[in-house]
Automatic annotation (TrEMBL):
Protein name, as recorded: Alpha/Beta hydrolase fold
Ranges in a coiled coil: none
Biological processes per GO annotation: lipid metabolic process
Pfam families (UniProt xref): Lipase_3
Any GO molecular function: hydrolase activity
InterPro entries to which the protein is assigned, alphabetical: Fungal_lipase-type
Length: 358
């Protein structure tokens, strides 16, 4: 039997009868529903729900979109994403904020037909190896093709959980080439111990400060070991103090997180801590920028000589700038805090803050 949460008429945003595309709340609701549409279209496939029995179409047709392409994983053939097209884009609506296209990615589905592959991808996120997977390559090809054919300003990227990591990595990849795509990311995973759950603010700051020092120190030590000549070491030191994240600083994704969701809540502390390190002075800002570019887990494994255990390159979750939207509404449990459904409800206490990288 279908879950009530799969049916648009039972749990969709009934309050959103008319979409104001200049309204960020409306944009968020529609994007979340389009992501839900990808979840449900995969469930329709798994349960052989077709025609009038399919539950997915209302999730996009209610907002005048059509699903023009499924993105399928080449390992298990599950539908992990989709490309939507707005049905009728009139000349007078071109500048109203309506996206011509939306590329959406679902998160992990805990069902027999998809869970094995989805968890494999989740592990790749932890290992900073998502970019090496065939699923991401399929997603990236779709994003590049769309950017080449219609232009970056004509479409959005969106996703939830694992899908948010896919959209985030795709957006970062394009942003590094100077192409900035509007991105709405829901509960993107932040690979870190849930420090934000610690009640004492001073303890949280102390742990993050120590983590930044250790990460930056290990990164510096690893770089120096890889170079033997003093001249090479000097060049490597110069590269470390240069800022590779500066190229990403103009990209401002909308990152939606819930403090009760330990998979994404560390984004809150990440941005707050970075501002604190800049205020400290005495080079603390430089230390933090160095630490941001590396995975502490990967560096520790590398220092212990455990090769290929964890990638040591830039973690997926690192972004220099963001519009951080925090849902401060009390959640019943983790499932509620992590769910996509919260993002189209109209009774949530949302607080947003723009963090620009300097």
């Amino acid at each position: 039997m279908a879950s009530d949460r799969e049916e648009f008429n039972l749990c969709g945003p009934s309050h959103l009868t008319t979409v104001d595309w200049a309204n960020e709340d409306h944009q968020r609701c529609v994007a979340a529903c389009l992501v839900q549409g990808i979840y449900i279209v995969e469930r329709d496939r798994q349960l052989n729900r077709e025609g009038s029995e399919a539950l997915a179409p209302p999730w996009w047709e209610s907002f005048n979109f059509k699903l023009i392409r499924h993105l399928k994983d080449d390992a298990d053939f599950s539908i992990f994403g989709g490309i939507y097209e707005y049905k009728s884009l009139q000349p007078e609506t071109v500048d109203s904020g309506v996206p011509r296209y939306v590329i959406a990615f679902r998160g992990t589905l805990t069902k027999a037909d998809s869970i094995t592959r989805d968890i494999e991808l989740d592990i790749h996120i932890i290992r900073n190896g998502l970019h090496r997977t065939s699923r991401f390559e399929i997603a990236m090809q779709a994003v590049r093709s769309m950017a080449d054919s219609v232009g970056a300003s004509s479409f959005w990227l969106t996703g939830h959980s694992l899908g948010a990591a896919m959209a985030l990595l795709a957006g970062k990849t394009m942003a590094k080439t100077g192409i900035y795509i509007k991105s709405l990311l829901f509960n993107p995973p932040y690979v870190s111990p849930p420090i934000e759950r610690i009640a004492n603010e001073r303890v949280r700051h102390g742990i993050r400060f120590a983590g930044s020092l250790i990460t930056a120190g290990l990164a510096l030590s690893r770089t120096l070991k890889q170079t033997q000549q003093p001249q090479q070491q000097q060049l490597q030191l110069q590269n470390l103090t240069e800022d590779p994240l500066e190229a990403l600083s103009s990209w401002l994704p909308n990152v939606h997180v819930n403090p009760g969701d330990h998979l994404c809540s560390e984004y809150i502390g990440f941005f707050e801590h970075r501002g604190t390190m800049e205020q400290i002075g005495y080079g603390a800002g430089i230390v933090e920028r160095m630490a941001m570019q590396h995975s502490l887990g990967g560096l520790l494994m590398d220092a212990m000589g455990v090769s290929n255990a964890v990638e040591v390159e830039e973690p997926v979750h690192v972004i220099p700038s963001a519009n951080l939207i925090v849902n401060k509404t009390n959640s019943e449990d983790y499932k509620d805090a992590h769910g996509i459904h919260q993002w189209w409800r109209d009774d949530q206490d949302l607080v947003s803050h723009i963090y620009m990288y300097k």
